[in-house]
Amino acid sequence: MSAGAKKYNQKMMFDFKESTVLKDFLKFENISFRNISQQNAMFPIGGITCITGVSGSGKSTLATAVAESFDKNRAKKYGEIYGGESIKRIIKVTQSPIGKTPRSTVASYLEIFDEIRTLFSKISAAKKLKLSPSMFSMNVKGGRCECCQGTGLQKIELNFLPSTYITCPECNGQRYSDEILSVTYQGKTILDVLETPISEIIEIFRDTKKYIRF
Ligand SMILES: Nc1ncnc2c1ncn2[C@@H]1O[C@H](COP(=O)(O)OP(=O)(O)OP(=O)(O)O)[C@@H](O)[C@H]1O
Ligand SMILES: [Mg+2]
Ligand SMILES: [Zn+2]
Questions:
Q1: Which tops the pLDDT comparison, 5 or 94?
Q2: Centre of ligand 2 from the C-alpha of residue 188, in Å
Q3: Mean pLDDT highest for which of 21-30, 148-157, 196-205?
Q4: How many other CB atoms are found less than 10 A from the CB of residue 109?
Q5: What is the pLDDT of residues 60-102, one digit of tens each?
Q6: How would you class 12 by CB atoms within 10 Å of its CB: exposed for 0-12, middle for 13-18, buried for 19 or more?
Q7: Given the CA of residue 64, which atom of ligand 1 is nearest to it?
Q8: Sign of the dihedral through C-alpha 65, 66, 69, 71
Q9: Which long-range contacts (CB under 8 A, 24 or more apart) does 27-31 make?
Q10: Nearest 5°: CA angle at 90, between 86 and 94?
C-alpha cells in the first residue's frame, strides 16, 4: 500500500463528526485487518453511514470487518465492538440482483414478502377463489395485471423522443387483477401492503410476531 493511501486511510477513519440527532453509536475499536491497523470507527445506529476513500484505502475491508464481527459462526475478531446489542443481523447487499428478478423488492429480499403472500392465500376469500401464494406476486404471471406485467405503467415509445410512461389503462395502476385485490387482510389489499410505509403497515401485523421480527 502506498504511503498516500495509508494517510488517506487514517483520515477516513477519524474524520467522523458526531451527529447531533443520532445519539446511539456502534463503536468499533482497535480494528486490525488487511491494511487497517489499530484504527477506530463509529457508526450511528438508526442512520445511514457512507464509507468513502480512494481505491484501496480499505472501505471494503472495514465493511467486511464490521459484517464478519456480527457473524456468530465465525470466530474471527478484528477489534472490539461496543454498543451493537440492538443489531439483529447484518445483510450484505452487492451489485448483484437482490432476488430472482431485478424487480424484486426489499420485502422479497428479506423473505417477508413470501410470508405475506402465503398469509393472503390462506384468507377464506382467497381460498374460495383458489388463489395461490405466487398469484400475490406482481413479478410472475397469475394474479398480476398482464397488460402492464404488474408495473401499473405502460411504456409509450415516441419517435425521436425518449419513451414515456402512462398509468396502465387496464388496471388503472393497480398492478393486480380485481380478484387479487378483492382479498383483504385487516382491511388492506396486497397492494396496500406494498404501498404503505412500513411504520404504518406494521400495525396490521401487530399480532404476528413472525412478521414483526423481520
Ligand atoms: N480478499 C482480500 N484478501 C487480501 N487482501 C485484500 C482483499 N481485498 C482487498 N485486499 C487488500 O486490502 C487493501 C484495501 O482494499 P479494499 O478492497 O478494502 O479497498 P477499497 O477502499 O474497498 O477499494 P475500492 O474503492 O477499490 O473498492 C488493499 O491493499 C487490497 O489489496
Ligand atoms: Mg471496495
Ligand atoms: Zn396493468
A1: 94
A2: 42
A3: 148-157
A4: 14
A5: 999 999 988 887 777 678 999 998 888 888 888 778 776 666 6
A6: buried
A7: 18
A8: negative
A9: 27/81, 27/82, 27/83, 28/65, 28/66, 28/69, 28/79, 28/80, 28/81, 28/82, 29/79, 29/80, 29/81, 29/82, 30/79, 30/80, 31/62, 31/65, 31/78, 31/79
A10: 150
Residue carrying C-alpha cell 487497517: 36
Cβ contacts of 119 within 8 Å, gap of 6 or more: 185, 208
Distance 170 CA to ligand 2 centre (A): 45
For residue 150, the ligand closest to its alpha carbon is 3
Q: How many residues does the chain have?
A: 214
Cell of residue 134, nine digits:
405466487
Contact predicate 32/76, CB 8 Å:
no
pLDDT tens-digit series, residues 132-146: 999 999 988 999 999
Our answer on whether the CB atom of 61 is closer than 6 Å to any ligand 1 atom is yes
pLDDT at 2: 44
CA distance 207 to 27: 34
Q: Which three cell numbers stand for residue 113?
A: 414478502
Least Cα distance to 103 among 151, 153, 171, 175 occurs for 151
